[in-house]
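Format notes (please read before filing issues)

Several people have asked whether sequences and structure tokens are stored in separate files. They are not. Every record keeps both together, in the order shown below: the sequence lines, then the token lines. Line labels are part of the format and must not be stripped during preprocessing.
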Amino acid sequence: MNRQQTEDQPYNDEIKGGLYFDDFEEFKNKSSDNSLLYYSFQQSNNFVLYLPSTEINIICQIIDQRGSITNIQKSLNISKKQVTFNNLNIDQLTFLQKISWIFEILIIQNDKQNCTQLKDEIYNYIQQQVTSDVQSEKLLAYQTINLYKKVSIKQANSNSTRRLLEQKYQNQCYNNETSLFIITNQEVTQKNSINISSLTESSQKVQSQIVDLIQLRINLENQNSQSNLIVDSQLVMMIKTVTQILIGSVHLIDEQYLIISQNETSPQYYEEVMKISETLIQLIENITIQISDNLQVNGQVLSFYGAILSLQLQKITKSVYNAQFQIQYDYLDNLIAFIQKSQLKVSFNYYNLSQSYRTMLQIYLNRSDFENDQNYFVKSFLTNYLYTGSQINQLQLQYILQN
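Then the structure lines:
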């Protein structure tokens, strides 16, 4: 097609890249987007890409003046680079080159000497870019950090015979021959003492980054709501990109919980670590509020699996909910537009750090023998969204039931 001879010009192009085939499949199914946005929409279709030595899916999204979007996908198999990391100076690399090299080291060249130090230097540089005044660089930095965390977890899981969310030896199994349970000792690990100053600083940094993303999404939504007659397709795409980055940012929270669970907390810091943990949970709930608009009713479950936490979110109609739990129809069901279900599971129960909380629960339940689960913290929500007339007012939805 000669784009210069069509009525739909001018065109704007953007380039994305996905490191894994399943990420590309999820992008096509619109269930998630873990790609890197190398170039946001621009009228020039000349792009310079720096890619790691792996099979990568490149997606070119083309938008015409009418707002129609066309996706062109190409799989590229980049041959392995022969490099000496001693001679690689990151100060001489562009931002896109740094991103290419961090995944080159993480996925391909991780057996090379001196590569770990270089990878950490590049990662620290990318973390600094989240404060960039250039929005495209800020978003690409967030995408890179989220994908870096996801790839790291994927590699840790593939290199281990243990499950991702529960990295402990199985403590009991059933023997069919003897009809007895065989109990084995749990893995004994030596934990380091938690550095409360470092934990506080890193948690505040995560909080600042996520709040920044949420505010950016709110600003984009407000900007989009001002154009009631004409749909700005590029702005809508940008909102979707920020939303996907927010979903991926749960990896940052997951990493903080991993630090807490793998280190020993001194008694004098119990309450402080407890407060940090509660703040992180609140961040996840704030993210859930922002991303729930992307869910289709009776559509796919939005799932996130990290190193220590998992998050699931779904919207269903009341009739589907009734069928799942064998509940009889009630005429009041007609008032419910849909039900939103969410569940957060953390393979570490930080409430055990708080004696005051345990005492409060014992009093509330009137059970002096009450104990918190040592391994899991689970928080579930069930929310009814009501019709506000003949249609749903999506700007003023409020829940009336929460469990």
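For reference, the curators noted about this record: The two ends are 55 Å apart (CA to CA). Residues 196-225 form the longest helix (30 residues).
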